[in-house]
Design goal:
two-stranded antiparallel sheet, mainly alpha, about 240 residues, about 75% helix, globular, 11 helices
Length: about 240
């Protein structure tokens, strides 16, 4: 089988799904990811994944609302910003600005759900394509470096075509995003300044920042509840 035949075969397998491996490594990866995010010295090395999804959340919702995505920047201190053009006010800008903090939790829960239902390969393919598109809109060298590292890692895991490894990596990454979303949310609530998303939302709407914080809290909480559903059977399977 030559390269292209193997590529098409693996791509087809990714879309058709695969049985979820019954392995203790799967649960270990999920729990380890949750612990790593809670340890400050380890969180430093993973937090950019959450920032990338946060900023691409702004971009994706902006495009869906009819705005034009022109670029984004990720900084070494975990901050970032997304550039979209369109009306200076209105529902499109409001949803675009709101999407950042809930998006890592939503995507993280979706990754956990997909990986634990045999769709880890599909998640890797979708993530690979989206990051390639985002790479074109990168506005700094550091942003390019982060995305290239994520693209190479995602492509390598997919190409290895190991169902256990793929499910473990995707579900662990999903947990990093989910727990990381909580860390980002509490950080903006406790330290958010005049340029934070809730503060900017308050300026363009008639609702105070704490109301937007409550909306974000509700979505992150819902995503956490959703993610718990596929994890519980994995825990039961390992313990039984």
């Amino acid at each position: 089988m030559d390269f292209w035949e193997e590529f098409v075969d693996r791509l087809s397998t990714s879309f058709s799904g695969a049985p979820v491996p019954e392995s203790p490594w799967l649960l270990t990866g999920i729990l380890a990811a949750a612990v790593i995010v809670l340890v400050p010295v380890l969180w430093i090395h993973l937090r950019q994944i959450v920032t990338v999804v946060h900023e691409l959340g702004h971009a994706t919702v902006g495009v869906l609302c009819g705005r034009r995505f022109t670029g984004f920047v990720i900084n070494a201190d975990m901050s970032g910003h997304t550039l979209t053009t369109g009306k200076p006010r209105g529902i499109g800008l409001t949803l675009t600005m709101f999407a950042g903090y809930p998006m890592p939790a939503i995507i993280g829960a979706a990754m956990l759900f997909a990986a634990l239902n045999g769709r880890a390969g599909l998640v890797l393919v979708v993530a690979f394509v989206l990051m390639l598109v985002a790479l074109v809109r990168s506005k700094s060298g550091y942003t390019v470096l982060v995305l290239v590292a994520l693209i190479v890692g995602t492509g390598a895991v997919w190409w290895l075509n190991d169902p256990e490894l793929s499910a473990t990596i995707v579900s662990a990454a999903g947990m990093v995003l989910l727990v990381g979303a909580w860390r980002q949310f509490f950080a903006v609530v406790s330290k958010g300044g005049s340029q934070s998303d809730p503060a900017q939302l308050a300026r363009i709407t008639h609702l105070p920042a704490f109301i937007w914080n409550l909306f974000m809290l509700a979505l992150i909480g819902f995503a956490t509840w959703w993610a718990a559903d596929p994890i519980v059977p994995v825990i039961r399977g390992v313990l039984s």
